Amino acid sequence: MLAVHGDPVGGGRGRRRADLVVTLVAVALAVWVTSGLWRDPNGRAITVNASDQALFEWLLAFGGHALTHGENPLFTHLLNVPDGVNLAVNTSITVYAAVFAPLTYLIGPPATFLVILTLNLVATALAWYWLLSRHLVGSRLAAGAGALFVAYSPGMVSHANAHLNWTAGWLVPLLLWRVFALRRPGRWLRGGIVLGLLVAVAFSIAAEGLFFTALATGVFLAAWALHPARRVRARAALPDLLRGLGVTALVAGALLAYPLWLHFAGPQRFHGTGFDPVIHSEDVAAFGAYPRRSIAGELGWGTALAPNPTEENSFFGVPLLLLAVACFVLLWRRAAPARRATLVALGVTAVVFAVLSWGPQATVDGWRTGQALPFALLGGLPVVNAALPARLALVVAPVVGVLLAYAVDQLRADPPRRPVRVAWTAGFAAALLPLLPTPLLTSVRPPVPQFVTAGTWREYVSPGGVLTPIPLTLDVYPDGQRWQAYALSHRQGEFRLPAGFFLGPGGPDGRGRIGPPPRTFDTLLDQAGRTGLVPIVTEGTVRLVRSDLRYWGVEVVVLPDEVHGAKYDLDEDALRRTATALLGEPRRVDDVWLWRIPAA
Question: What's the pLDDT tens digit per position in 75-87?
Answer without folding.
Answer: 999 999 999 999 9
